[in-house]
Amino acid sequence: MSDAISRGETKSTGGTTIRPEEAAHFGRLARDWWDAKGPMASLHQVNPVRLQFIRDAIDMHWASDIEAAAPLRGKSALDIGCGAGLLCEPLARLGGDVTGVDASTENVGVASAHAESSGLDIRYMAGELASLQLGQFDLVTCLEVIEHVSDKAAFLRDVAASLKPDGLLVMSTPNRTAASKLLLVEAAERVGYVPRGTHDWDDFVTPDELAGLLADAGLAMGEPRGIAWRPGKSLHLSSDMSLNYIVTARFA
Predict the structure, then answer these.
(1) pLDDT digit string, tens, across residues 32-57
(2) Which residues contribute to the annotated binding site for S-adenosyl-L-methionine?
(3) Does residue 1 belong to any structural domain of this protein?
(4) Domain assignment of residue 11, yes or no
(5) Residues 247 and 207 sit within 8 Å (Cβ to Cβ)
(6) Residues 6 or more apart from 248 whose CB is under 8 A from it?
(7) Using the 8-state DSSP alphabet, how is residue 161 labeled?
(8) Burial (0-12, 13-18, 19+ Cβ within 10 Å), 150
(9) Per-position b or e across 186-224, b if 16+ CB within 10 A of its CB
(10) Which band of pLDDT confidence, cut at 50, 70 and 90, is reported for residue 170?
């Protein structure tokens, strides 16, 4: 890939990375998104694990007081692929000026209504990230999204264009392994833990592949952490990345 550009000079592609069928799939789930026992239960279960990683990354990146209730106060945050706002709302409670973007208008509608009912001021927008021209943010999050886009390299260039030169990016995605194919796709969808049609294993990205894609967008990837499960401990951060992993990135 030869589109790498220097720090602070990342350009949006202006192209289309949304797959309409993916947006429609998640849009059909919008009204049940906040039901912790519904079809999106898996996201409710993994959210505290992801938030633990994000909070630690925020404290490290900005040398925050680990006891501070609002480490994002005075900072802007963008959640790409925000769904119905499961991450946006905690980021707002951490003090961030939060914007959520999603491909599905149905998700954005549910997210907006839920934030309002919770007394949170969050801006939600639907559409292609590049076309929205939102500017740059201190924190950009993009969790379980890259495996659903049509052009991963172009998408990450758009993500990089949304990040301030000294900003922090956090991403998570399933790993492409034999274990993830068996457990995240075949078993999870068969038993209803994940809605059918959610994942295409061939679209999963390995940590090495993600590091290369991020480098081509001018970003340096940090050390990835696995999100693993085991009896008695449930979902947790781990060195085991066979199913899913979460990682930070910054401008190189």
Answers:
(1) 889 999 888 888 999 999 999 999 99
(2) 50, 81, 102, 143
(3) no
(4) no
(5) yes
(6) 57, 61, 168, 169, 170, 171, 221, 222
(7) H
(8) middle
(9) eebeeeeebbeebbebebbbbbeebbebbbbbbbebbeb
(10) very high
Domains: count for the chain: 1
Amino acid at 190: R
Closest among 2, 6, 49 to 220, alpha carbons compared: 6
Q: Tokens 């680990």 — which residue?
A: 66
Annotated binding site: 50, 81, 102, 143
- Residue 170 near residue 245, CB atoms below 8 Å: no
Q: What is the CATH number of the domain that holds 246?
A: 3.40.50.150
pTM of the model: 0.88
Residue 119 belongs to what domain range? 20-251
Quote the tokens at residue 251.
């401008």
Cα separation, 207 vs 173, whole angstroms: 9
